[in-house]
Amino acid sequence: MFKRTSVVDQIKVDTFGFSSIFEIGDTSYIQGYSRALALQRDAEIFYGKEGNYNAYDLYREELIIPKITENIQTHYIQHKPIIKVKNIDILGVSSSSVLHIGNTKDISMESRVKHFRQFVKNEE
């Protein structure tokens, strides 16, 4: 893992929500996972069956991650070992997101969202 020091003078985050993480320091592995059902209706009706993730194939399907088969060669020159930032101002971090200041070796993030739009038919 590349070693650089991150220096942040000031950070302001208005909102953290839904399993989000604020990590300061070096991390070997970060894994984030989020699943959500997004329902938009004209009328405020709840039938009681909408929250079952098992009813949808989207949440049971295996995630296919393509393998890198190309030979990738990299060369890094670190002219300065410090990354310095004066201010960070963030409105919100949500849905298993990670705000991380520091070095990370491996990151794996996954989000699955099923959207529904149910509108009343106009009889004109």
Automatic annotation (TrEMBL):
Source species, domain of life: Bacteria
One Pfam family this sequence matches: GerPE
Classification via InterPro entries: Spore_germ_GerPE
Protein name, UniProt field: Spore gernimation protein
Higher taxonomy: Bacteria, Bacillati, Bacillota, Bacilli, Bacillales
